[in-house]
Amino acid sequence: MFKIEPRGYASRFWSIGSPILALALTVLVTGAIFKSMGRPAGLSVYTFMVEPLLARNGLSALAIKAAPLIMIGVGLALCYRANVWNIGAEGQFTLGAISGGGLALALPDAPFVAIYPAILVAGVLGGMAWAAISAWLRTSFNANEILTSLMLTYVAQLVLIYLVTGPWRDPMGFGFPQTAMFSDAATTPIIAPGTRIHLGCLAAVLVAIAMWLLLSKSVLGFQLRVVGQAPRAARFAGFNKPRLIWVAMLISGGLAGLAGIFEVSGPVGQLTTSISPGYGFTGVIVAFLGRLHPIGAIFGGLLLALSYLGGNSAQIDLGMPNAVTGIFQGILLFFLLGCDILILYRIKRVRPLPSISGAGA
Amino acid sequence: MATDTTAQSGPLLSVKGLVKQFPGCLANDHVDLTVGRHEIHALLGENGAGKSTLVKMIYGVMKPDEGEIVFEGKPVVIQNPAQARRLGIGMVFQHFSLFEALTVAENIALGLNNPEDRKDLQGRIAAISQSYGLPLDPGASVHDLSVGERQRIEIVRCLLQKPRLLIMDEPTSVLTPQEVERLFTVLRRLAAEGCSILYISHKLKEIRELCSKATIMRLGRVVAHCAPAEKTAKELAELMIGADLKTSGHSRELNQGEEARLVVERLTVRSPHPFGTDLKDISLSVRRGEILGIAGIAGNGQTELMDALSGEVPAGKPETIMLDGAPIGHFGPRERRKIGGCFVPEERNGHGAVTTMSLAENGFLSAHIRASLTRSGFIDAVRTQAFARGVIERFDVRTTGPRAEARSLSGGNLQKFLVGREVEQNPGVLVINQPTWGVDAGAAVAIYDAIAQLAEAGAAVVVISQDLDEIMQLCDRISVLAGGRLSPAVPASEATVETIGMLMGGTGMPATPVQNEGASAVV
Asked: Is the pLDDT at A91 greater than 50, yes or no?
C-alpha cells in the first residue's frame, strides 16, 4: 500500500527533478508506442531524439525551431507566475505575423533600417492588441482569460486565412493561399554565416534574460509574483491588480507577436495559412517544463524544438506519421504535471496500523 | 469484577503514550492524560503545543500512531467522531460547523447519529436549553444568530447525546464577559451532574477560576499535571512557555499632543462579502501618542474596518478619513503609506505576508516606499536585505536570516516580523488588527512593547482586538465595534470589563437572553 502525503514544503530537488523524471518516462512510453507500431523501440527513440542533432545543420535547425518557442514560453512563464492564464499565444503569434507581415507587404521598397525595425514593432503591437482583448474582457467583465484567449486563437487563424486567400493573396502565386514574398529589406538577417540561424534566435535568448531580470529584480516583476502567489497580500501592499493583469497579458502577447513576425520574416518569408506548427500551444509546455522561469524556458524550448525535428526524422526514416510530435508533446506534458505532485507531496509506503486496543498491542 | 470497579470508580478517560507524527513535526510525543469523573480538566498550552491534535484523536477525527485510549475502564479504538459520540464523547469546536441558511433544529438534526432522534427534536431542544439556561429558538435561522448563540447550538447538540465527556476547544474566545460567566455556570452544573469536561484554553484566569485539574503541554509533550488553583497565573504561564515570563516592563510615558493624527468621520461601507458586516456611521479620532483600542467579537466588522482604514477598500469621500489633516478616504494603501499610514492585518499567511517568499521580500512588500528600497524601478537588494535584517535584530525574530521563507517561521515570530516591519517604517499612524492572534506569550509581550514605544514616539495607534484583556492593558481609550457600529470611546481608566462586555453584546444594556435575541433580530 502506498499513500500520498503532503510534505508541508516545496521540495527544491523535485522542482528540478520532476521535469527530468517526466522526460525519462516520456521516452519510455514513446519507445513503447514505437514498438507497438512495429518499429524497434531503441532505434526509434534514437531517430526521434538524437539523430536530428547529428544531422548536417541539425543544431541550426534546432535553434530556428527553438527561437519562437522560447520567446512564447518566456512570456507565458511570466504571465502564469502572475496567475494570469493566457492560453492564446497561438493567436497572438498569428496577429504578430499578420501585422508585421502586412506592413512588409505594404512597403516593399522601404530600406532595411526603416522597414525592419518597423515590422518588428508592428509584430509586437499586433500580438499585444490581440492579448489586450482578453485583458479588457477580464478586467472589465471578469471574463475568464483562458476561454477568451483560446477562442480568439481561432478567430486569428480565420483572419489569416481570409487575408492570404483574399485581399493579400499573391497575384503571381498561381492561386496558392499565400502572399508575395517579403522584400529583402523586410527579411530577418542571418547572424551565423553558412547556417540558417537568424537574428530571432539571438533575440530569444536576450528576451529570456531580460524577462528573468524583470521578474526577479524589478519592482514590476515583484508585483507580478506577489499578485500570482498571494492576491490578498498584493492588495494589502496596494498593487493594482487590473493593471498587473494588463501588464502580464501585454508582455506575453507582445512576445508571442514578436515570435510571429520573426518566423514569417525569417524561415517562412511570406504569409501563408500554415505559418505555425502550433508554436503557441507548445509554448505552454515550454513554460511549464522550464518551471515558469524565463531561463528554464530556454531549455524547455530546445527540448520541444527537438520534438518537431524528431517528428520529421521519424516520418522520413521510419515512415511514422507526423503526429508523433504531438503525441510526444502530449505525453511529456501529462507526465510533467503528474510528476509535479512530488514537489509538494511524498509517496510513502504504509504498513497496516498497529492495533491500539487490547493488551497484546 | 475488577473491571467493574474500575468502570465505576476509576478515571473516566485515561490516555497513555499517545503519539502523532505529522510530516516534519511530532505533534504529540507520548502524551498522557487522565480525566476523572465530575472533573473540569484544563488542557493548557500555547498555539502549536499539540492540544488540538490530542483532542482530535480522542474525538476520532485523527488516529494516533501509537498509544492507548481507555474510556470508562475499557481500551477503545475510536475510528470516527460518530463512534466517539456513541461512546459518550462530545466536542464543541472552536470553529463552528453550522449551515447559515438552516434553522437551529435542522442544524442539530444534522449532527445527530440516529435518525430516530429527530422525532420531537424541537421539544427536546427546548427542554434541554431551558433546563441549562441556554436559551435557543429551535426555529430560528442560524445566520440571524450571534456567535454566542451559535455556540449554544453546538453545546445543546452535544448535550442531546447525554455525553459522559464534553470537550470544549477555546470556547470563550468568541464570547462577551457576560456570556463567559453564563457558560461557566452551565459547565459547572454539567460537571456536578457527572459529565466530565476537557477544557482547552490558553487563558490562565479562566482556567484558575473554572478547572480543578490541569494538564499543561508544550511542543507536543506533557510538561506538568497540576491543580491550577494552587498555582499563580505567572507560574502556569511559565510552565506553558517553558521560560521565565517577561512581563511588559515598559511603563509608557504619556506624551500626548492635542492634535488628532487620524480622524474618521461617519464612515459607512457595504461589506463585499455575503455574510460580512456593513460598517455604519463610524467616527473615531486618535491623537498623537495615543493608543485607541477597538474591542468587539470577531465578525462584527473588524475585517471591514481594517480594510477601510488600510485603503484596501476605498472609503468613499476623501474627507471621510483624514491622516494628519490630509483627506485620504479615496487613497489606496500605497498613497496612505506615503503620507504615514502603516498597517498590520489580522491574517499573516497570504495577507500580511507571502508565505513562499523570503523575509527580505516580505519586508519589501509593504516597506519599499517608506524605507526607499527601490532604485529606478528595481529592487535595491542590499538595502532590502539590510532592512529585513534590521527588523529581525531589533524585534528578536527567531529565524535563520533575511533569506528564510516566511512560512518557515512560527506564528509568533512571523507576527513579530510583520509588526516590526511596520514599526521600523516610523509611521505616523499604525492600525493593527488582532496583534497577538495565535502568538505565544513571549512574542505578545514584545509586540506590546513595540506598540507602546511607537506611541511614545508620537504615533497614533489603533489596536483592533477581540482579546479584552489585551485592550484593557494596552490602550488609552476604548471603543467597541458591534454589528458594524462603533461606540464612543471611553478612557481606559473608566472602562470596566462589565461595561465593555455589555457594549460587545451589541445593546449597551445588560444582555439578558430575551433582550439579546430581540436585539439580534433588529440588527
From this structure: yes
Strands B485-486 and B429-433, bridge-based pairing: unpaired
Could you give the number of structural domains in chain A?
A: 1
Which of these, A95, A274, A102, A258, lies nearest to A186 by C-alpha position? Answer: A102
- At B119, list the grid cell: 422525532
Answer yes or no: is B36 within a domain: yes
Q: Evaluate whether residue A303 is within a structural domain.
A: yes
Tell me: the pLDDT tens digits for B272-310?
A: 877 778 999 999 999 999 999 999 887 789 999 999 999
- Residue A338 inside a domain? The answer is no
Q: Does A6 touch chain B (CB under 8 A)?
A: yes
Q: What DSSP element (H or E) covers A36?
A: helix A12-36
Per-residue pLDDT at B164 = 93
* In a shared domain, residues B318 and B225: no
ipTM (interface pTM): 0.87
CB A200 within 8 A of CB B328: no
Question: Closest chain B residue to A346 measured between Cα atoms?
Answer: B23
Q: Which domain holds residue B98?
A: 2-241
CA B392-B394-B398 angle, to 5 degrees, is 40
Please judge whether A356 and B381 are an interchain contact, meaning their C-beta atoms are less than 8 angstroms apart: no
**In the listed set B188, B208, B241, which residue is the last one of a domain according to the structure?**
B241
Model pLDDT for residues B58-68, shown as the tens digit of each residue? 999 889 999 99
Asked whether the CA dihedral A57, A58, A60, A61 is positive or negative, the reply is positive
Q: Which residue in B479, B419, B118 sits closest to B294, CA to CA? A: B479
Chain B touched by A3 (CB under 8 Å): no
Q: What is the DSSP string of B345-368?
A: -S-TBTTTB-TTSBHHHHHHHHHT
Give A-chain residues touching B25 at CB under 8 angstroms: 8
Contact (CB<8Å) A236/B310 = yes
Q: Can you tell me the distance from the alpha carbon of B243 to that of B105, in angstroms, rounded to the nearest whole number?
A: 47
Residue A137 lies in a domain: yes
Of B77, B347, B377, the CB nearest to A220: B377
Phi and psi of A185, rounded to 5°? -65, -25
Interface size between A and B, measured as CB pairs under 8 A: 90
Tens-place pLDDT, residues B336-345: 999 999 999 9
Q: Measured between alpha carbons, how far is A252 from A89 in angstroms, rounded to an integer?
A: 7
